[in-house]
Amino acid sequence: MTVIFDGVASGLLLFLISVGLSVTLGLMNFVNLAHGAFAMLGGYTCVVLLNRFGVPFLAALPLAALTSAAAGVLMERTLYRRLYGATHLDQVLFSIGLVFVSISTAHFFFGAQQQPLQLPSFLSGQFNLPGMDIGVYRLFLIVVGLGIALALQWMIADTRFGAQLRASVDNPRAARGLGINVERVFVLTFALGSGLAGLGGALGVEMLGMDPGFPVKYIVYFLIVVAVGGSGNILGSLVASLILGVCDVAGKYYFPQIGAFVIYAVMVAILILRPQGLFGRTAPR
User: Fold this and answer.
1) What is the pLDDT at residue 144?
2) Could you give the CA distance from residue 71 to residue 102 in angstroms, rounded to a whole number?
3) At residue 162, does pLDDT exceed 80?
4) Alpha carbon distance 262, 217 (integer Å)
5) Which of 59, 106, 251, 282 is the most exposed place for a label (fewest CB within 10 A)?
6) Per residue in 222-235, pLDDT tens?
7) How far is Cα 4 from Cα 32, in angstroms, rounded to an integer?
């Protein structure tokens, strides 16, 4: 039970970081492999606010998300917008270049070492229940992750903005004809995805660590979530993250020699059965 609990917490943290990539890749059809750089920006922002300026942890989290969201808006307005009509190969090559720029920048300012982060006392420690040990911080991650997942699903499926986003992606010309500001919708979407990545990066410093190699180290995990869950599907990303989180923790606990390989085996098995992902739409014949 403890392994399952830790796996759920790990999965929801993975969901927070990767769901923005699912939105931009699935709904906007833009391959942004620099998504992990925004998570790294949120993580470093949180560390700097805590260690250098003494900002409380719960106040540093939204500030980290806002910083990454602002960076997402800046990148969308200046660089990404030029590549909306480009091929996926061009988008991949460009975003990979941004990853290496972000790594070099983080290395220049912070060095190669892991960044220390001291959690507040009310989020530290654990309490025991029959058959399992519950870490307070992991319980906090589960509550935050589930809350954001529900809010995102509601926003995409049941709000005016969600309808505008789907219309802007499916047919931008028709959407403009209906009075939708497509450029503004895309900017807000990038800001949302980047902000969630920054929030996940800030929350993940304690569990995942934070160093300049973060965007490369975890980009495969983010892509696995998108592939297994189904591109552009919030519920799919959530379920995929939970499955992969539990399998990853269980594999490393019970089979430490091959633990890191378990999630790849799970991904292959799922995609053999469901090539479009768990909740992906089947291509029309």
Assistant:
1) 92
2) 12
3) yes
4) 17
5) 282
6) 888 888 887 667 88
7) 31
Q: How far is CA 191 from the centre of its chain?
A: 13
For residue 143, what are the contacts with CB-CB under 8 A and spacing of at least 6? Answer: none
| Dist CA 273 CA 100 (whole Å) | 35
Other Cβ atoms within 10 Å of 60 Cβ, number: 21
Task: Write the pLDDT tens digit of every residue in 115-135.
Answer: 888 888 888 888 777 777 788
Q: Whole-model pTM?
A: 0.89
Q: For residue 127, how many other CB atoms are within 10 A of its CB? A: 9
HEC secondary structure over the chain: CHHHHHHHHHHHHHHHHHHHHHHHHHHCCCCCCCHHHHHHHHHHHHHHHHHCCCCCHHHHHHHHHHHHHHHHHHHHHHCHHHHCCCCHHHHHHHHHHHHHHHHHHHHHHHCCCCCCCCCCHHHCCEEEECCEEEEHHHHHHHHHHHHHHHHHHHHHHHCHHHHHHHHHHHCHHHHHHCCCCHHHHHHHHHHHHHHHHHHHHHHHHHHHCCCCCHHHHHHHHHHHHHHHHCCCCHHHHHHHHHHHHHHHHHHHHHCCCCHHHHHHHHHHHHHHHCCCCCCCCCCCC
Taking the domains of the chain in order of start, what are their residue ranges? 2-119+128-212
